[in-house]
């Protein structure tokens, strides 16, 4: 927790759920449910320092100045397609968030990201923007997504993932040192085809039941 750029959420519930998700015997339905649950715990952590203000309310007992979130609604940006798995759970916790999508696929030969969709809320410069993608692997698509969000005006961006490889963290740190990363775990390395090991396999395939 001492690196301001990287927060590893080592909460026992997060770690327990992550182990179940890594297990290759875990079914698609259970994987999806666990992802929903874990994303709420990660959302709790990444929103810990949201700006607050107070508003005057009346309880059944008396008036008080009660704490409430300040500023514009935050923007959750799903990096398609696997980002949607994190998005669903986060929206249960932050239902008034605005939502955007960045469509990037990874060219399996070059491992470089290719853009096919981009739609984000207005006033990106006035919002906390949380980009979500379960797997920070090479970092290529995350860096490209953050590039696009900055081009759209975002200045206050955080990145949320489930698993990160040291290579992806280094790449993000180099390209976007102003974007803090929150993850449930940092794994050992990438393999020769850019998958995180030990990892959990292809997050999109595991949540959608594709191969
Ligand atoms: N994307 C995945 O889904 N899994 C990995 O291990 C790397 C990238």
UniProtKB/TrEMBL annotation:
Domain Phosphoribosyltransferase, chain residue ranges per copy: 8-210
Residues that hold uracil according to the record: 196, 201-203
Family matches, as InterPro entries: PRTase-like, PRTase_dom, Upp_B, UPRT, UPRTase/APRTase
CC cofactor note: Binds 1 Mg(2+) ion per subunit. The magnesium is bound as Mg-PRPP.
Segments passing through the bilayer: none
Residues that hold 5-phospho-alpha-D-ribose 1-diphosphate according to the record: 81, 106, 133-141, 202
HAMAP family per UniProt: Upp_B (MF_01218_B)
Protein family according to the UniProt entry: Belongs to the UPRTase family.
Descriptive protein name: Uracil phosphoribosyltransferase
Protein's organism: Sulfitobacter albidus
Gene designation per UniProt: upp
